[in-house]
Design brief:
Elements: E1 11-15, H1 20-32, E2 34-40, H2 46-57, E3 62-64, E4 68-74, E5 86-87, H3 92-102, E6 108-112, H4 123-131, E7 135-137, E8 147-150, E9 159-161, H5 167-179, E10 182-187, H6 195-202, E11 208-210, E12 213-218, E13 226-228, H7 233-245, E14 250-257, H8 264-271, E15 275-282, E16 287-293, E17 301-302, H9 314-322, E18 326-330, H10 343-353, E19 357-361, E20 364-369, E21 377-379, H11 384-396, E22 402-404, H12 416-423
Parallel strand pairs: 1-14, 2-13, 5-6, 9-10, 17-18, 21-22
Antiparallel strand pairs: 2-4, 3-4, 6-8, 7-8, 10-12, 11-12, 14-16, 15-16, 18-20, 19-20
The chain binds shikimate-3-phosphate.
Pfam families: EPSP_synthase
Main location: cytoplasm
Organism: Enterococcus canintestini
Length: 430
């Protein structure tokens, strides 16, 4: 499809869609708690619908009246064996967190995904769960999906030092530890998003965090809650960068989730000189409104502990860096290679087609700026975040940009193109 340009700037306000990580977990915790959970502002995008359908297949009653999702919790002992293998589509969060949940069940389940998911590494989750006593096998004895999980009601607690910084791996271990008898300790490589820990507390469970160390004792019982999902800062990131790099722009983003384990993008934008203001910060539900304007940007170095706090934002940060003066270096981000695509290669190759000065490295990217971008034939490569990043690049490019596989964006943001259209000055709005 032909992407939109923004010759006259961007203006207006956007309420970005609900947080993907919290939406997945709200279904999971709702299912595993006792009593009812209601979820408002659930993200009705492909990835989260994969989680919703997976729990329906495990016998959890879930209804949706268009505004509120209601989950009738069955508790950790109430899940039922699925009649058939479960398709989790493109969703790494669904498969990895479910592996931890299913490790504690006394039945066998097979989870599989699309071509992209079936190539993503699962050993990182299988190893700790196997140590806890569950049996997990990948396709033809590999670490790749389909993954068959033969759970046990006799899971053992674990002391585990994580070799990768990953909230998905951490969360899978936590879900298993909630069902194991005894105290488990997890030490993170770097602090990653903590939605699972926060939601355990919200649902009446107990978990302690001390820096990179997490401690919890099982088995626990959770109680259903009313969840209101805030907007996703990872979706807001595309608009933050769009306004910063497009001349004559000012945007307001409403109700953006501000969990500190997710706000690395704000730190980077500020470091690079962006005119960004945080308004109406509500510390209770960790959300705020953000105001951002066209900005004179300079380069920075992004490495170390900040990486997990902005891991999904690195493709759009790379685009930001193409418009900043000087050399931006992104390192310690080798995890990008095992996302929905190899995001180091995809970001570099697709932006290069548009004239960017960008070089992939073993664990990141080196970008020299500023460089004017020009229209090209580009592809999302089936990765939602690469697709959205390329539409933002097209806003400031000269000439026509054609995007192949635009439908990938439905994974996290089905209304993305409508929302972009709304904020382009001079576009017709219906
Ligand atoms: C997620 C964790 C991250 C992130 C993904 C969502 C989560 O993955 O990239 O989009 O909801 O836990 P990793 O844990 O593999 O880093």
């Amino acid at each position: 499809m032909e992407l939109l340009q923004a010759q006259n700037g961007l203006a207006g306000s956007i309420t970005v869609p609900a947080d993907k990580s919290i939406s997945h977990r709200s279904i999971m915790f709702g299912a595993l708690a006792t009593g009812q959970t209601t979820i408002k502002n659930f993200l009705r995008a492909q990835d989260c619908l994969s989680t919703l359908n997976a729990f329906k297949k495990l016998g959890v009653p879930i209804s949706d009246d268009g505004t509120t999702i209601t989950v009738t919790g069955v508790g950790f002992s109430g899940l039922k064996k699925s009649q058939s293998d479960i398709d989790v589509g493109n969703s790494g969060t669904t498969i990895r967190l479910m592996m931890g949940i299913l490790a504690g069940q006394n039945f066998t389940t097979t989870l599989f995904g699309d071509d992209s998911l079936n190539k993503r590494p699962m050993q990182r989750v299988m190893t700790p769960l196997q140590q806890m006593g569950a049996t997990l096998t990948g396709k033809a004895s590999s670490e790749f999906p389909p993954i068959t999980i033969q759970g046990t009601k006799e899971l053992l607690a674990i002391d585990y030092q994580m070799p990768v910084a990953s909230a998905q791996v951490k969360s899978a271990i936590i879900f298993a530890a909630l069902q194991a008898k005894g105290t488990s300790t997890i030490i993170e490589k770097e602090i990653s998003r903590n939605h699972t820990e926060e939601m355990i507390r919200q649902f009446g469970g107990e978990i302690t965090t001390n820096g990179r160390k997490i401690t919890l004792t099982g088995p626990q019982t959770l109680v259903g809650q009313n969840v209101v999902v805030p907007g996703d800062i990872s979706s807001a990131a595309f608009f933050l960068v769009a306004a910063a790099i497009t001349p004559n722009s000012q945007l307001h983003l409403k109700n953006v989730g501000m969990n500190p384990t997710r706000t690395g993008i704000i730190d980077v934008l500020k470091q690079m000189g962006a005119n960004l203001t945080i308004e109406n910060l509500d510390t209770n539900n960790q959300a705020a409104d953000l105001k951002i304007e066209t900005s004179a940007l300079h380069s920075t170095i992004i490495k170390g502990e900040i990486i997990p706090r902005l891991i999904d934002e690195l493709p759009i940060i790379a685009l930001l860096a193409t418009q900043a003066s000087g050399q931006t270096i992104i390192k310690d981000a080798e995890e990008l290679k095992v996302k929905e695509t190899n995001r180091i290669d995809a970001t570099a190759a697709e932006l290069k087609k548009m004239g960017a000065d960008i070089t992939p490295t073993e664990d990141g990217l080196i970008i020299n700026g500023p460089t004017p971008l020009k229209g090209a034939k580009v592809s999302s490569r089936g990765d939602h975040r690469i697709g959205m990043m390329l539409q933002i690049a097209a806003l400031i490019a000269t000439g026509t940009t054609m995007l192949q596989q635009p439908e990938a964006i439905n994974i996290s943001y089905p209304d993305f193109f409508q929302d972009i259209k709304k904020i382009i000055v001079g576009e017709h709005h219906e």
